Every structure is written in structure tokens, then in C-alpha cells.
Amino acid sequence: MEKVALLRCDEYDVNLIEKKLREGFEFLGGDSFLKKLIPYNSKVLLKPNMLSIEKAGSPVVTHYTVFEAVIRILKDYSTNISFGDSPGFGDSQRAAERSGLLGIAEKYNIQFEDFKESVHVKLDDSILCKSWNVARAAYETDILITLPKLKTHAMAYYTGAIKNQFGCVPGTQKATWHTRMPDANNFCKMLLDLNTVVGTDFAILDGIVAMEGNGPKSGDPYSLNTIIMGKSITAVDSVAVRLIGYDNPLDIPVLKEVYDHKYGAVLPENIEVIGEKIEDLKAKNFKLCRKGGNFYFINPTVTNFLRGMIAPYPSLKKDRCIGCKRCLEVCPENPKAIYMINNNGQIMPDWKMDQCIRCFCCQELCPVGAIEVKYNRLGKILRMDRR
Ligand code: SF4
Ligand code: SF4
After folding, report:
1. What are the tens digits of pLDDT across the range 156-184?
2. Phi and psi of 173, rounded to 5°?
3. CA of 356 to the centre of ligand 2 (A)
4. Which numbered atom of ligand 1 lies nearest the CA of 323?
5. What is the pTM of this model?
6. Ligand 2 center to residue 115 CA distance, Å?
7. For 121, left (φ over 0), alpha (ψ -120 to 50), or beta?
């Protein structure tokens, strides 16, 4: 049975968050638990979510007060703490500065790792992917503590403790994985292998203000007033998705893969939730980015054909587009599935849908939220059948 601490926390007040986190660690075993998790002075890497260059307090990135509260607690167990991430687009140093994380790190003498240097690693006992390039700092740390943000996600439905480690793949190499794994199920298997490679040891999920709607970058803030923490990243994510409205965690592609491959605890009966009850913190009318369920019933040989008929697709909100071409830059396909058009003097993207693998990198990284996920009629009908 995996233990997960579920905490209510209503505001980004560092003293309050520190108090709540200390309560959470008490639930999990207190000082002896922490000493076991972090053998004295071992090298600890904190991995917040720095998806892109966002201002401090943005619901896209892990809040700097959560980061500070974690450091206040962990500094009693190690003097060798660093943090890092590699954003999907833009420079990691700027992302760390803008988010307020770098300022906090300097205050506590925490080193910043820009994740630009990678190391090649083999994973013989993988689910799918045996050969890896990951950030050296993430691979070589003794303890990796992930600090994800709870958000909706166009491709993965939800992003939290498991998916946060995709940032351990340096810079533009992330795009390569999307091209190699165009199928969402394989992409999720890859995420599990990645967590094995970097060895994620503990998760503290920032759900005080979560993101609903057009996540992971262009959704709306939602006060979920929650922190979730535990050693099992799969159990933490299982609790998180139930809070936001996926009653069956197996409706989330990556958690279905966890279950199928016995990677970790995901079913409610295998997870002990300590602290608050899920029912008491459940979100009301949380806007999901995608409804639960997956296309497992489709034979892979016809998936490509059916993708065009039923899969969700990226769609432009013309009035928002500023013609920056970032969507074109980040599209991992070769040739690109996006091209730019001039529509009465306004430069904007259009799509070659037969080439689009539905990775939603364009939606994820559009700086102004001008791309959203849409379903055609058949897709909507089939997905309603799965509910
Ligand atoms: S859709 Fe977004 S990323 Fe693409 S050109 Fe318009 S504003 Fe830029
Ligand atoms: S157009 Fe968008 S969703 Fe399609 S492959 Fe390119 S980045 Fe991915």
C-alpha cells in the first residue's frame, strides 16, 4: 500500500506551506522518513515545472513559495541541494529568473542547473525505450524530488508528478521524442522509462492554484487549495486526477500504462490517502482539457486512418494569434505539419492534418493561447461512448 499525504492549503504563504509540508512529512513517517529518503548530505535535485518563461506566480509554473518551503525543510537534511529544468521553449536561466525560483535559490545558496549538458544512458530493463539522453544533473543526483504543478494537458489529459520529468530531456531533444512516439500510449511508456532512468524519489505536487481548461500553458487558474505528496509518483498522480474529476484514474493514458506494466500503485485500493479526504477537496466544475478514456479499442494498424476522423486536433483562435511563428518552430514533424499563411495581412498558421501527429506541442507552447484542442463530430460521439 502506497501512502500519499493530501493537504489543504489555501494560499501561497511560505510559512503556511512550510507548516503544511511538515504535517505531510509527519503523516509519512516524520524525521525518520526524511532521514531515509535523504541520507545525510546526499546530493538532492529539485525539479520544479518551468515549462516556459513565465512571470512569478503564473499558474503555468511551480510557485516560488512552494519551492521555498521545500528548501526550508530539506536544508536540515542536506547542504548539497540544487534545482533545474529545461523549458519546452526558451532559455532555462531566464525561465528560472522570471518564475522567481532563481531568486529564492540564491537566498538559500541553492545551485541552479540549466540542464544543457546531457549524458547518454542505457536502460536495459525498459518498458519501451532503451537508449536515452538526459540532463546530466538529473541523472547524477542522489535524490530527485519532483515539484510539479497540477495542470490539464492537451495530449496527456493531465500533467503532474510523472510527466514533470519530461523536462529532464534537454531542450529541443524533447521534440525528437514526439516524432519517435507519435502514439500517445507509447509516449506515456516513454515517460515511465524516463522516470526509471532519472530515478524520481519523491513528489510534492503544487495544486494550490491548479490549471484548468486549455492547459498546460494557456488554461485558467483554478483554486484547488491542495498539496499532494508521496514517494510514489504514480500514487500522487492517481490522487490528483481523482480530485479534478477523472473518477477512474485508468482514464488517464499514462496511468493506464502504469497499471498495465505494473509500474506503480494507481488503483484507489492500493493507495492510502492520509490527511484530508479526496471527497472533501474535490474540484467542482473543473474544466478538463480532454475527457477521460483512450483509443485502446482501435487496432493500431488502422489508427493512422482513424486519427484523421476521430482524434482531437489543434485549432486556431484567429483573434488571438500574433503571428510569432513559435508553433511552426516547435512542430517536431519533418516536414512540418504547420505552415504560415497571410490571411488579409495577418500572418497565422494553418495545418496539414494528414501529417499532424497530435502531439500538441504547438498548442502547448503558443505564447498567447491562440491554439486550442477541438474534436470533430465523430470523435465526440466515440468519446462519449467511452464515458
Ligand atoms: S498560433 Fe500562437 S504560436 Fe502560432 S503564430 Fe499564432 S501566436 Fe504564434
Ligand atoms: S501541428 Fe502541432 S500537434 Fe501537429 S505535429 Fe505539429 S506541433 Fe504536433
Report:
1. 999 999 999 999 999 888 988 988 888 88
2. -65, -20
3. 5
4. 5
5. 0.91
6. 25
7. beta
Q: Is the per-residue pLDDT at 346 higher than 60?
A: yes
Name the grid cell of 226: 491542495
pLDDT per position as a tens digit, 77-125? 999 999 999 998 889 999 999 999 999 999 999 999 999 999 999 999 9
CA–CA separation, 204 and 214 (whole Å): 23
Q: Which grid coordinates are listed for 225?
A: 487549495
pLDDT at 374 over 90: no
Q: In the chain, count of helices (H) and strands (E)?
A: 15, 16
239 HSE (CA, 13 A, CB side): 34
288: left (phi over 0), alpha (psi -120 to 50) or beta: beta
Closest of 58, 16, 84 to residue 227, by C-alpha? 16
Does 255 contact ligand 1 (Cβ within 6 A)?
no
- Fill in the amino acid letter for 206: D
Which residues fall within 8 angstroms of residue 277, CB to CB, at 6 or more apart?
A: 6
For ligand 2, mutation pick of 304, 325, 341, 362 (most atoms within 8 Å of CB) = 362
